[in-house]
Amino acid sequence: MRATAHSSGEAERGLARDSDIAPGIVNRLQFGIIVTDSSRAVIEANETARQMVIAAHGQWPEGATCCSLFGCLRREPIARHCITKLAARSQGPLPEIRVDLPPERPSSAVWITAARVGRDGSQVVIHLRPAAVRDRRRRTQPHWMAKPRLRIRALGRTRVETEEIAIEGDWLMQRPGKLLKYLVCQRGRPAHVDEIVDALWSGAGITGRNIAHHYVHALRERVEPSRSPHTPSLFIISAGSTYSLDPRVAVDVDEFEDLVSVGLGNSAESAEGQVSAVDCLEQAMNLYEGDLISDEPFAEWAFAEREAMRSLAWKALSRLVEHHLKHGDLPAATTQLERVAELRPLDDDVQRRLIGLFLQQGRHSDASRRFATFRQRMLDQFGQEPGFSLTELASNQGQAEARL
Predict the structure, then answer these.
(1) CATH number of the domain at 26-131, out of 3.40.50.2300, 1.20.1250.10, 3.30.450.20, 3.30.2350.10?
(2) What is the rounded radius of gyration, in angstroms, for the C-alpha atoms of the chain?
(3) For the segment 214-239, what is each residue's pLDDT rounded down to a tens digit?
(4) Are strands 242-245 and 236-239 parallel, antiparallel or unpaired?
(5) Which among 92, 158, 179, 374 is least surrounded, fewest beta carbons within 10 Å?
(6) What's the sign of the alpha-carbon dihedral 210, 211, 212, 213?
(7) Whole-model pTM?
């Protein structure tokens, strides 16, 4: 035991010595290393990576993220993707791609690959090496852009599309379609077959697993009708007793989340940075056509994810409203606030603000209709009047105009 303890102590001292010299070794590498966390923020970068970024951007950006450094969600080849999110969801390293730096005014370029650290994908390591600015080659075709490709639109009514056609039909409301929607809600992690059975066919008993396997097969036939028998599925991945969507399946929810995250996280004070943030938020809200999987309004397995998306939509719209008000664009602010009111139909403050904007623009009929609808909802739901009256808002508006 003493010998074991002695060996263990020496090993610990050896690890300590290794950890002391590791930063020096990493900083002497001729290629860049950047580590990001699940929020895309850069938490570590070696000296080579810092010098590459500084040479391109003029400085190391404050609050650097992979998206601000490499143009995720804004420029090809990652106009619809975030490198950190892609790597976190991928089972192996991403194929190497070429990216211009900085994204807005390219003056240099790098080859990038990335891989998640650990199984949970909470951190991602990004590898950089210099590239020629005019070199437009791609060393490999990134797998997330390679055909065949499946796209799922789940914000609003669920739709499934390939590069060529829309895969429509009643099957989306049947068991294979429900399974697909469930996997959308579980995207980013494998769902165990027992979880699937419990969520979708809880009364199936001992035959539950067989039912799940049967409908996985049926789902694969729907989304890959030309797949040869006994060949691996490109879209519905199985590992042990789990199933998940392959990263090459493009889900609008992922794109929506990424765009909102970048738009809300952009703290740049420059006009260019603010425009970029607003553009991301507007793109996100163009994707938000309604509640997540709105064609399954009573599915308990969709509730949590649906509310999470509603919360993100509310934050994005609120930021857009403030932006338009700051720049004096009352019609645009009103349009976005109307969408906020759809998300928060019983929110007294939201309705008050929207009706106030109607009055401010002389839209008295719209203000009257909005107030009447809100008042009736409050009476039906809570048996009480709103916390404000239309007369009060009109009076306040008149006083504000008189002061001007």
Answers:
(1) 3.30.450.20
(2) 26
(3) 999 999 999 988 888 778 888 998 98
(4) antiparallel
(5) 92
(6) positive
(7) 0.72
